[in-house]
């Protein structure tokens, strides 16, 4: 799949200079007056950026759902419902930011494919934006990714490249980009920097605006699960920038290295097994996971995550993906801790994507049995805390 973007010759002569007193450095000596402005490309770029920004204007903000807790507890729990985005997940915001970042950096060119390493939801959203601006899209994903996600990627005009080893998605994506002359979007590196964390209608600013008339407008805790780490970084940075007292907790599923890397302060931590909770958990410490910005992490059993999404369906009548369950489990644990300490306040977590994408996984007893997951004791824990406020 060739890239039609022009290939420019480097207008510099590169000298590598090394002395005993200093480390090697590069000097660039101009050798010609080169005008890199391509009128056709600039016209295409302006129109591509316009289309992406216009899409943002057409998308209403997502709802902040109230999870019912007894009034006398003095604690309010909310779920930011990101499943209502046009592509059905929290990753819609990320994909929009990544496309704007790459376009404005000059990395995406007319006709050149965009390639992404993903566990599914980001790829669905990126396929949507690639189609919007008229470039091909290839998603590199683990073969275990849900069939519904691959269907959605293809529905939006993307192509799926499945790999057996989830740890290989980075290298395969980079190789495909090099072979095709395209751009490797690399969400796991750029997620935390592509989003304007100071505001500009990011998810953190949206949450605080929606809470402004609630009885506890400044939440005690925000609970954000991590795939890239970009969302937790956005929340944490915005909180620090606005000088709020809110703390950020990041729950981590089984088979993810984030918790171990954070607790041990080990940026080289890895996991040899892929996460069963799609969209969160990683086999390596991703560059976008800003460990110093967050306040707390929890390790959540996968069976607990599944139990939580099933309890969510019973209480709110809404099906959600497993990452929502990971966040809800941790949020209810924090609620119980606040009650035990006699604290009042609010807790916010995320409804990341709809459960319809996972009917053959988290809502399938057959799948649970095949994975050796018993959700009964975790369901009992959740029902107990909802009835009594105590964490069993």
Automatic annotation (TrEMBL):
InterPro entries in the record: Cds1, Cys_Synth/Cystath_Beta-Synth, TrpB-like_PALP, TrpB-like_PALP_sf
Tryptophan synthase beta chain-like PALP domain location: 68-353
Domain of life: Bacteria
Keyword Lyase: yes
Catalytic activity: L-cysteine + H2O = hydrogen sulfide + pyruvate + NH4(+) + H(+)
Modification N6-(pyridoxal phosphate)lysine, positions: 91
Keywords: Cytoplasm, Lyase, Pyridoxal phosphate
E.C. designation(s): 4.4.1.1
Top EC category: lyase
Cofactor(s) needed for function: pyridoxal 5'-phosphate
Keyword Cytoplasm: yes
HAMAP family: Cds1
Function in brief: A cysteine desulfhydrase that generates hydrogen sulfide, H(2)S. The H(2)S produced by this enzyme modulates the balance between respiration and glycolysis, and contributes to redox homeostasis. Probably eliminates toxic levels of Cys (which can induce oxidative stress).
Family listed: Belongs to the cysteine synthase/cystathionine beta-synthase family. Cds1 subfamily.
Designated name of the protein: L-cysteine desulfhydrase Cds1
Source species taxonomy: Bacteria, Bacillati, Actinomycetota, Actinomycetes, Kitasatosporales
Gene that this sequence comes from: cds1
